[in-house]
Design goal:
heterodimer; A: mainly alpha; 11 helices; elongated; B: alpha+beta; Immunoglobulin-like; ten-stranded mixed beta sheet; 3 helices
Amino acid sequence: MRQRHTEADSPRPVAAAQQDIAHQLQLAAAGDQVAWNDLVDRFSPLLWSICRHFGLSSADAADAFQLTWLRLLENLDTIQDPARLPGWLGTTCRRECLGLLRPTKRVRPTDDDRLLDRLRGPSSSADQPVLIADRNARLWREFDRLDARCQRILRLLLIEPDGDRVSYELVASALDMPVGSLGPIRGRCLTRLRRLLDAEGISDALRDS
Amino acid sequence: MDDEHTGPQTPAPGADDPLLAPLGELIRAADAPPTVAVELAKQSFGLRQVDTELAALVADSAMDPVGTAVRAGEQSTLPRLLTFEVEGPDDTPQAVEVEVSGSGRYRRLLGQLHPPGAARIEVRQPGGDAVDPVDADEQGRFVVAAVGVGLIRLTWHRPGRHAIATAWFRLD
């Protein structure tokens, strides 16, 4: 029997995570505010990054983000298969972002550079030990030298500390790409980044930390 | 061929790559969603309406590619016209047309219900000021004099039937 892809190419077992989400969705549909809050906390970082990925201004990103949640709210009773929630959220977020882009400007594939200009670097926290702060600054500098496509995709795929199948499905829907293509792209982009770091002699600093 | 996707395409997160943890941290710090946006999303749960039919956006002059092509340049001076529609239980479509005018931070909405008839109209906005409900007259016409720009939905109540809510949309 053919192995199902959903099982085969999972980075890690996610049945439990998906059951969790299904349960929260059920509770939220029954009126449970806490379950809704959990869903918002679970998916907000990814959804926000997707809004920024499409090059929306902060104000537009806030509206596309909010609209995505409002759509879920109005469809809480009608989502038949909770396992598809991540894909549903990704597709919905994509649609809201493109919808807000359309009236004011065309979607241009060459917007990458302007987007990256707009995305500010991470703020360094004052109490960060100097060595780590310095290491991070150098890491960020090399990350900034990656091609725009790699930067954009890594920003989505590394946003979750334990990126799992759920987050990959959401990102794949948002980008309208096959979920199986994300892992290899991520691998290639990380390899490129590693080469940049090696060339600058930064890799050792990472390993020692 | 079938199983070309099989295998460890994705390195186990953070497992053997000293790069992932610090880079992930940097990205999360750079791209964190604003607290206010997350809080608003949580609060929006209070805007949920059950036992309400959902009228979908079926036409929007701001999105109409033909309109924008023909009227390029003067688009912003024309009032925006939106139409929301839902199939009624007896096959009669229930619809509302909304004309948006005004400038600055507030908009005026001129509405027309189909089929015509009296109704009470509610305005909902996440995080916005409360707007008093207005009444549609016997011809199904109503006016919302001032509503803040931003996300919004209208709900209309008619005696003897389910309330109908428009899909959420953005007043620009």
